[in-house]
């Protein structure tokens, strides 16, 4: 079967694209390797998405997106995309469940947390090293944990961790946070949160689980060791584009380059959300991307 529109990725961008595509009368399928929502689905509370003045959990918002897309006829398939073939008029995608074809494709595969790349990180992942506070926070009840990073995600996750941990230390390489002011103020007012400025993690230590961090003062180069039961890393994202195998033009950081209508370097292939090269990555901007990409794909198909 050849679909009109195939969407790779079920975050806010992909789910919005599925909604617009299906509602526009396109035979639409969305391929997602995990639970709908992407990074947003793992967020404890989203307070800056319009229409929810009291906020909403990431997973609840993702479920609403998915329900709405399916109500208009979009098909959601749980599978992992292995590789793509965009060389033909009908684009082909090879997945863990087999092959799918479509006349137009929107890539909304998102991004994943960037690792620190320090000794001990890979070895202790899942044993005190985490990239998702909402996933793993409950395992650190009454424990001392570190959060690495200074942006919105890092500070928001640190605030969430105070529900469980007895002490949360935010470790940041600079002298000031990059997070928005309202989030910074909440963190500074929380008695469980402390800060270590001008500091980076040099190594994560422990035998069977995290027991301490080797910290480095970026000004003096001095090293010190401090005990921690866990470390949560939020230092940015890396795009999920490995499965493309060089099929599309990427920027130096690996994000998909798009035009204003979110078309990529191959006709009939569009990109939306965190996977494309852009300045801002929020749920609201991802939703906007998904709508634009779907409408551009519909126009592309109408002109074939």
Structure classification: alpha/beta
Radius of gyration from the CA trace?
A: 21 Å
Average pLDDT taken over every residue: 95
Low-confidence stretches: none
Strand content: 25-35%
Number of strands: 17
Give helix % range. Answer: 10-25%
> What's the helix count?
7
State the major sheet: 7 strands, mixed
Q: Shape from CA axes?
A: elongated
- The run of helices and strands is EHEHHEEEEEEHEHEHEEEEEEEH
Give the termini separation.
19 Å
Note the topology.
Layout: E1 2-8, H1 12-23, E2 28-32, H2 38-41, H3 58-71, E3 75-78, E4 81-85, E5 91-95, E6 98-107, E7 111-113, E8 129-130, H4 133-136, E9 144-148, H5 152-161, E10 167-171, H6 181-189, E11 193-196, E12 199-205, E13 212-217, E14 223-227, E15 230-233, E16 237-239, E17 269-271, H7 283-302
Parallel strand pairs: 1-2, 1-6, 2-3, 6-17, 8-15, 9-10, 9-15, 10-11
Antiparallel strand pairs: 4-5, 5-6, 7-16, 12-13, 13-14
Subunit structure: Homodimer.
Keywords: Disulfide bond, FAD, Flavoprotein, NADP, Oxidoreductase, Redox-active center
GO biological process, one term: removal of superoxide radicals
């Amino acid at each position: 079967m050849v679909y009109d529109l195939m969407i790779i990725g079920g975050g806010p961008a992909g789910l919005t694209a599925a909604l617009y595509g299906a509602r526009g009368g396109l035979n639409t399928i969305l391929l997602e390797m995990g639970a709908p929502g992407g990074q947003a689905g793992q967020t404890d509370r989203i307070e800056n998405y319009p229409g929810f003045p009291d906020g909403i959990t990431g997973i609840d918002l993702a479920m609403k997106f998915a329900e709405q897309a399916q109500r208009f006829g979009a098909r959601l398939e749980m599978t992992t995309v292995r590789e793509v073939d965009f060389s033909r008029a009908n684009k082909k995608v090879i997945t863990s469940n087999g092959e799918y074809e479509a006349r137009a494709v929107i890539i909304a595969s998102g991004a994943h947390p960037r690792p620190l790349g320090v000794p001990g990180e890979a070895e202790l992942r899942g044993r005190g090293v985490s990239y998702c506070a909402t996933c793993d926070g409950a395992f650190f009840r009454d424990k001392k944990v570190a959060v690495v990073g200074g942006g919105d995600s890092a500070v928001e996750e640190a605030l969430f961790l105070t529900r469980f941990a007895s002490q949360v230390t935010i470790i940041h390489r600079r002298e000031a946070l990059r997070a928005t002011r309202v989030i910074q103020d909440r963190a500074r007012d929380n008695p469980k949160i402390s800060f270590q400025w001008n500091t980076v993690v040099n190594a994560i230590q422990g035998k069977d689980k995290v027991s301490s961090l080797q910290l480095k003062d970026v000004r003096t180069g001095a090293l010190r060791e401090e005990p921690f039961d866990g470390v949560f890393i939020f230092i940015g994202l890396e795009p999920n584009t490995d499965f493309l195998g060089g099929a599309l033009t990427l920027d130096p950081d690996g994000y998909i380059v798009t035009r204003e209508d979110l078309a990529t370097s191959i006709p009939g292939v569009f990109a939306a959300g965190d996977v494309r090269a852009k300045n801002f990555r929020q749920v609201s901007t991802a939703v906007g991307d998904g709508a634009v990409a779907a409408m551009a794909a519909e126009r592309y198909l109408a002109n074939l």
